[in-house]
């Protein structure tokens, strides 16, 4: 029988051997490997790890971000230890699960565990001093359910949360001389317009929203028909009919960023294509007032010829000045714009909407607005009674009023834009109530109606005067022709007598 000292001596030798083996990296790897295998035979749970950074460039994992959003929305209510971060508006607070915390979830009756951990790296050469990761644990019997269904469910929910919570951006393009910093500048997109507050007929709003939803959910459909995942909208109508407001409502409805493209600052077609490449998916690219921003028809060539002719007659100093000004002009052509909207490069990003706005659709080249480029044409017309009711609810907080009948009759007889109607509904002082605003609107509508009547009368008088002048000119011309014929006939008779 061994004595106590012998036992302690033996244990000390074993411990010294284990410490030596653990201190040796190669031996430690073997020990850890055997230990994991041994535990795996008796441990009934499977663990899946989702690191924060992955790949050769250590880019932040999209899966990690989606899981973080998912757990922030659901698991933070169950966790005992939480951490606080500022929200997208820097004013609200977001609670999330703290490091080394675990929460229990259930999915289709199956219990599973989420934990958040971090490992501090001992390698000083790594760019990050620590590595965060999420670990999902579940019983091995539910491997198929978790790997095939639950993880996809978590990623989809997490991406949806991110889309709803992210701060949307409004971009505008820089002149090419400032491209050292960026091709696009952006600010936070905070336009409050929604389809609920949009002054438009309800049937038209429903049609537009259904079209947008069909597009947003149509990735597989567009791939099946062999078409780039994009859609063109043409908004046309007089100024003040709500074209820009509709674009803002579309962006808020889809949670898309907005790229406001100013064509006059784009040097040529090549730069236009570069700007397109720099845009992202889930965005709306807007070119406002396309009928006014650039001359994209053959008239530009005629105007250039006229300028060249004038330049030839000008002095050398004036020619140098004109040459400097012309070099700054945009050389974007209709062909370049068509390729931007519908060419090969337009498919470099998916899930994008291109919107053109115009005051006068008849000025646009048919090739620019054909179906396939501008798939949906939306006329933004003058204010109707249904649009007025939306404005009355927005500005005055009322759904009905005895004066609505008078307003309806006048709107049917008068052309007034929603912007002008809204301006008349804004209270100008604290003493002005909804009835005073409606009476002011009625008075304005009567003035517009009277002005339109007088203008029509003047146009009719001018047309009648022009018609009378033309008739008088025709009579004088006919009389002159008859007199001349008489003179010629008299001259011929005199010549025959002679």
Describe the protein in words.
The chain has 17 helices and 15 strands. It has helices spanning 4-23, 25-42, 62-74, 143-165, 202-216, 219-225, 243-254, 269-277, 290-293, 299-313, 316-327, 334-342, 366-369, 385-396, 404-413, 418-425, 434-497; strands spanning 45-51, 53-54, 59-60, 82-86, 93-97, 101-107, 110-120, 130-139, 169-173, 184-188, 230-236, 257-260, 283-287, 352-358, 376-379. The strands form four sheets. Strands 10-9-12-13-14-11-15 form a seven-stranded mixed sheet. A four-stranded antiparallel sheet has the order 1-8-7-6, covered by helices on one side. The longest helix has 64 residues, at 434-497. The protein is elongated, with a radius of gyration of 37 Å. The relative contact order is 0.07. Residues 317-327 have low confidence and may be disordered.
């Amino acid at each position: 029988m061994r004595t106590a000292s012998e036992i302690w001596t033996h244990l000390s030798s074993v411990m010294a051997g284990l410490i030596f083996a653990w201190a040796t990296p190669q031996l430690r790897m073997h020990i850890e490997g055997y230990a994991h295998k041994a535990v795996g035979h008796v441990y009934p749970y499977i663990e899946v790890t989702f690191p924060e950074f992955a790949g050769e460039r250590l880019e932040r994992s999209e899966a990690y971000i989606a899981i973080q959003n998912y757990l922030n929305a659901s698991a933070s209510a169950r966790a005992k230890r939480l951490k606080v971060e500022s929200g997208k508006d820097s004013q609200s607070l977001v609670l999330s699960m703290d490091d080394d915390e675990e929460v229990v979830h259930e999915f289709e009756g199956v219990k599973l565990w989420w934990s958040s951990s971090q490992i501090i790296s001992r390698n000083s050469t790594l760019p990050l001093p620590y590595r965060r990761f999420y670990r999902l644990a579940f019983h091995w019997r539910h491997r198929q359910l978790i790997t095939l269904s639950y993880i996809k469910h978590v990623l989809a929910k997490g991406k949806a949360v991110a889309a709803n919570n992210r701060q949307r951006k409004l971009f505008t393009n820089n002149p090419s001389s400032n491209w050292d910093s960026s091709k696009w500048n952006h600010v936070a997109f905070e336009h409050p317009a929604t389809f609920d507050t949009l002054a438009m007929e309800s049937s038209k709003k429903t049609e537009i929203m259904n079209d947008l939803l069909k597009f947003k959910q149509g990735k597989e459909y567009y791939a099946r028909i062999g078409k780039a995942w994009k859609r063109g909208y043409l908004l046309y109508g007089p100024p003040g009919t709500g074209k820009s407001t509709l674009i803002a409502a579309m962006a808020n409805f889809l949670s898309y960023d907005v790229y406001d493209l100013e064509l006059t600052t784009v040097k040529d077609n090549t730069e236009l294509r570069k700007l397109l490449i720099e845009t992202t998916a889930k965005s709306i690219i807007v070119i406002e007032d396309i009928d006014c921003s650039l001359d994209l028809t053959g008239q530009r060539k005629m105007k250039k010829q006229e300028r060249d002719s004038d330049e030839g007659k000008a002095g050398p100093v004036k020619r140098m000045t004109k040459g400097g000004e012309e070099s700054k002009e945009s050389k974007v052509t209709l062909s370049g714009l068509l390729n931007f909207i519908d060419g090969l490069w337009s498919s470099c990003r998916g899930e994008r909407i291109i919107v053109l706005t115009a005051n006068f659709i008849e000025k646009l080249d048919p090739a620019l607005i054909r179906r396939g480029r501008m798939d949906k044409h939306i006329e933004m017309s003058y204010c109707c009674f249904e649009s007025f009711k939306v404005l009355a609810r927005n500005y005055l907080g009322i759904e009905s009023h005895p004066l609505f009948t008078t307003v309806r009759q006048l709107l049917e007889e008068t052309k007034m834009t929603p912007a002008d109607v809204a301006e008349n509904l804004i209270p100008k002082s604290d003493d002005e109530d909804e009835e005073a605003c409606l009476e002011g609107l009625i008075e304005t509508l009567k003035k517009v109606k009277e002005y339109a009547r007088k203008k029509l009368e003047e146009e009719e008088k001018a047309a009648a005067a022009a018609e009378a002048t033309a008739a008088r000119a025709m009579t004088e011309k006919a009389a002159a022709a008859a007199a001349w014929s008489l003179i010629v006939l008299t001259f011929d008779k005199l010549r025959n007598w002679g």
